Amino acid sequence: MNKPLEKLNIFSFKGVQMRTFHLSWMAFFLCFFGWFGLAPLMSVIKVDLGLTKDQIGNIIIASVAATVVARVLIGKLCDSWGPRKTYTALMGICSIPVLMVGLVHSYEAFLLFRLAIGVIGASFVVTQYHTSVMFSKKIVGTANAVAGGWGNLGGGVTNMVMPLVFAGFVGLGYLPEQAWRLAMIIPGFLLLVFAVLYYMYTKDTPEGNFDELHTTQTDSPKTKGSLKAAAMDIRTWALFLAYAACFGIEITFDNVAALYFFDTFDTSLAMAGILAGSFGLMNLFARAFGGIIADKVGNKFGLQGKGRLLALFLAMEGIGIALFSQSGNLTAAVVLMLGFAMFLKMANGVTYAIVPFVNPKAIGSVSGIVGAGGNVGAVLAGFLFKSNGISYGQAFLYIGMAIAVVAAVLALIDFNKSRVSHPAPDLETVKVRQ
């Protein structure tokens, strides 16, 4: 009988566990193409649709706002319907607005499509859920960090690739206002194809799909009141703030980086995409590195040590963003961007190295609240970028200052507060509720 793996061999595709691991991060990667494929093309779209700065700000907010609610709903579907069907449906349904966004010719229609596309950001929940059930608790943190980091890598690659796809259509003789619309067909089509592949080649659990398993209500862990228990714990909300300050700023930067470099430093569209993409490429290692450091600190200094580490990384991130906002030339901006990106992505990893230990009986609820925090942070940051009275540079400065405040708050939180005495159910022994 298949069981959760106790070793992560990233070069292996053998077995349903490793096959699901690779298909999960690849799906998350492609979801970023659909989610942020429009971001590096906004300088062209702005001209084509005659968008104002305020309207662009609304579009940035819309792209992440829907994800807040979607993550909660998708999490419930994973529990009841299974991650395989949930991911298949999510990619299949969200491929439609990605494919059809090129049909719009007004700001209002574009805003609605951007809101609909934002639902695909809930893919993070399915990725983390699916890798969690495929691996032993001994390595599930590593598996989640690697899958999450490699999936987030899609945000950087998107900024690099979509301008090239756009340029390819221009090279074929299409006008810019036609080329950006055609470019979005590529990620939409890939999402549709991958939805089919995911359904065919993954399982809900190592033992099989939910509808193949025969269990009773008593086989499942008791989760009644878990959401209330998670919401009543101050550490949950501290991590909510932390994730707003790291992942929330990451997806905000994915949205505005190319436009910022294009407008501020007069780069080409392709160069702006490459520079913005280098920010996302650091997910290849930085998020996992943060998780690894957190585990080492936790083994020596406990949960409080992890909390202090998270506060330190957030403080360094905030300082880095503030300095980035004041950079006077392109070289300095790129160096500072890579610096704060390292601390930001390590903070992502540390956050989810703490989440499982806040309340062992409400891990899912804690994860859901903290994950939603990332998108709430992105929504709040988006308001700064839509203001006509604030430049993008000033917006980054205010964000850096806000992150420093969050870091100070985190440093005051007692993460060693007594936890619920009942242990968390082992992933190896918990059976899935039908």
From TrEMBL:
It is a multi-pass membrane protein. InterPro entries: MFS, MFS_dom, MFS_trans_sf, NO3_transporter, NO3_transporter_NarK/NarU-like. This is Nitrate/nitrite transporter. One of its GO terms (molecular function) is nitrite transmembrane transporter activity. One of its GO terms (biological process) is nitrate assimilation. CDD domains: MFS_NRT2_like. The chain crosses the membrane at residues 21-44, 56-74, 86-105, 111-129, 150-174, 180-201, 237-262, 268-286, 307-324, 330-355, 362-383, 395-413. Keywords: Cell membrane, Membrane, Nitrate assimilation, Transmembrane, Transmembrane helix, Transport. It holds the Pfam family MFS_1. Belongs to the major facilitator superfamily. Nitrate/nitrite porter (TC 2.A.1.8) family. Residues 20-419 form the Major facilitator superfamily (MFS) profile domain. GO terms for cellular component: plasma membrane. It is found in: Cell membrane; Membrane.
